[in-house]
Amino acid sequence: MAKRGASRQGGPRAGLDARGRSQRQLRVGEELRHRLAEAFERGLLHDPALDGVVVTVTEVKVSPDLTNATCYVTPLGGADMAGVVKALNHAAGFLRHHVSQELDLRVSPRLAFAADRSFEEASRVEAILKHPKVAGDIARAEEHEAADDEPASGEPGDGDGDGAA
């Protein structure tokens, strides 16, 4: 008999992505993301903190038992991130009810909203890579790799055109 939590094929981690999430978690998270995006697009929320703000749902992470979902959002146009997240968490119950009517799930996940900082982090890393000192180091590393990839002289393909080894 197989151990509890282990599947018949591939052991206990079979069917999980690199971050340890099951196919079902990923599918439910993506469905939630689409339904929330539609709700925001339709303007279902009437909160002063959200007036004129376009909110993007970048990712939804669902717990293994599908009872909790963390929704990562970012406001476009430089809106107040903290205010938007606070307003969305205030409206989480309404959004949960709305989403539960559109999804066929036994239990509708509790929604929690969090700021998505991945764009800020990507910009920070890009700025570091563009720094002159770092850019010089990268160029030297690429030159070193290119030199290592060239065949040594006297070997076939040495570029002298005689075809001799």
Fold and architecture overview:
This protein is of the alpha+beta class and 165 residues long. The protein folds into 2 domains: 23-116, 2-Layer Sandwich (GMP Synthetase, Chain A, domain 3); 117-148. Helix content is 44%, strand content 15%. The chain has a 3-stranded mixed β-sheet. The model is unreliable at 1-11 (pLDDT under 50).
Walk me through the topology.
Layout: H1 23-42, E1 54-62, E2 68-76, H2 81-90, H3 92-102, E3 110-115, H4 118-130, H5 132-149
Provide tags for this entry.
GMP Synthetase, Chain A, domain 3, alpha+beta, three-stranded mixed β-sheet, 15% strand, 165 residues
State the separation between the terminal residues, measured CA to CA: 63 Å
Number of helices: 5
Q: What would CATH call the architecture of the largest domain?
A: 2-Layer Sandwich
CATH class of the largest domain: Alpha Beta
Number of domains: 2
Oligomer class = single chain
**Pairing-aware structural class of the strands and helices?**
alpha+beta
Report the CATH superfamily of the largest domain.
Answer: K homology (KH) domain
| CATH structural fold name of the largest domain | GMP Synthetase, Chain A, domain 3
Strand content: 5-15%
Total strands: the figure is 3
The helix fraction, in percent, is: 40-55%
Q: How is the main sheet built?
A: 3 strands, mixed
CA radius of gyration is 25 Å
Strand order in the largest sheet: 1-2-3
Shape estimate: flat
Task: Let me know the average pLDDT.
Answer: 80
Contiguous low-pLDDT stretches (5 residues minimum) are 1-11
Secondary-structure element order, N to C: HEEHHEHH
